[in-house]
Backbone:
């Protein structure tokens, strides 16, 4: 066993400390996990104050580690199921709200996504049953306490995550069912998002509003319900927005976001280029039309006789995307995402005919 911190690639930074690998998938412990660990220790240890502080902290730490173990079992089940369907798994992260498994949903189907989503709660349910069976024959207070903790934690994780609303695993299953029934995954995202909103309201009413109406004291647990509710509401809202946005993408065509361009010789004067009604491109030393005259360059105080080649900005070669007016935006959006740029030059038979930008696409979304 080594205590040396594992080295991380630049691509792995930002996810926390890498603590393990499961079937080659890196597992990270996010800094936010330590916050929830502290909260658990505080809640568990409080009844032991002030006489048995050490005991309370030790029991709280054990409960926090049991939760971490249970969350990793949950996420590992997601990862293993995704790998079973030959979907590359990028990482597993344990964080403040439990955990998250990132994978590339290639060749995805409603059945596969539902199976991946159900695997996590199923693993927790199985672990809870195993712990309960072991508890029946357990001897010793410490062993019983650990097994009892596993039963409670995994039973709770299984029940909570299977609830039918985004962003929970049950919401992913709802999305898959609607996707299967309608053939439209985006519609599934919207339905699952609204289900998540309804679920959030019901949870807050039952665990916060109802006790308050009955005159019960509002403690830390009740406040925590509101915090969890806000997270669930945010996740549900994101699902609705994502479904609507992707539906808009499906309706939009290249012609809806394209702005005409003209390719002028590099030695064209700035004055002549600025007078052209279309956006202006010119070619670089290789003959590639990837040099763009930015709007406003003509009003920068430069001599109108300045060669166009002197005042252009270079775009990545990959920004040249073959596209027809009736094509969808999928390839354009994928290019923008992969390059991290908001500009794409649209070509036909190798010749630029238009340009589009992230701003134009966002404006088109607004109109739809």
Residues:
């Amino acid at each position: 066993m080594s205590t040396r911190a594992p080295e991380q690639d630049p691509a792995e930074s930002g996810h926390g400390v890498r603590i393990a690998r499961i079937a080659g998938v890196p597992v990270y412990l996010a800094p936010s996990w330590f916050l929830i660990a502290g909260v658990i220790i505080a809640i568990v240890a409080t009844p032991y104050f002030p006489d048995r502080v050490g005991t309370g902290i030790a029991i709280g730490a054990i409960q926090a580690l049991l939760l971490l173990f249970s969350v990793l079992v949950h996420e590992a089940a997601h990862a293993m199921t995704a790998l079973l369907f030959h979907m590359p798994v990028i990482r597993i992260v344990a964080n403040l709200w439990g955990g998250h498994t990132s994978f590339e949903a290639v060749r995805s189907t409603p059945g596969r996504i539902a199976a991946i989503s159900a695997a996590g709660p199923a693993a927790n349910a199985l672990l809870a049953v195993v712990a309960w069976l072991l508890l029946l024959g357990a001897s010793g207070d410490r062993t019983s306490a650990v097994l009892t903790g596993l039963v409670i934690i995994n039973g709770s994780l299984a029940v909570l995550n299977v609830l039918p609303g985004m962003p929970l695993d049950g919401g992913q299953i709802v999305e898959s069912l609607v996707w299967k029934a309608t053939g439209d995954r985006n519609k599934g995202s919207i339905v699952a998002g609204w289900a998540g909103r309804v679920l959030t309201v019901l949870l807050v009413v039952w665990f916060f509003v109802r006790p308050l109406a009955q005159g019960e004291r509002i403690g830390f647990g009740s406040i925590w319900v509101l915090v969890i509710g806000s997270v669930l509401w945010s996740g549900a809202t994101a699902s609705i927005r994502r479904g609507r946005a992707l539906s808009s993408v499906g309706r939009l065509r290249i012609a809806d976001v394209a702005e005409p361009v003209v390719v002028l010789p590099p030695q064209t004067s700035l004055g002549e280029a600025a007078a052209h009604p279309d956006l202006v491109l010119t070619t670089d030393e290789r003959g590639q039309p990837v040099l763009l005259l930015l709007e406003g360059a003509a009003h920068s105080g430069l001599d109108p006789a300045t060669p166009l080649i002197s005042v252009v900005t270079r775009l990545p070669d990959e920004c040249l995307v073959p596209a027809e007016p009736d094509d969808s935006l999928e390839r354009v959006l994928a290019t923008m995402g992969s390059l991290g740029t908001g500009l794409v030059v649209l070509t036909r038979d190798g010749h630029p005919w238009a340009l589009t930008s992230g701003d134009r696409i966002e404006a088109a979304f607004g109109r739809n």
The radius of gyration is 28 Å. Confidence is low (pLDDT under 50) at residues 1-13. The CA atoms of residues 321 and 346 lie 5 Å apart. The chain has eleven helices and eleven strands.
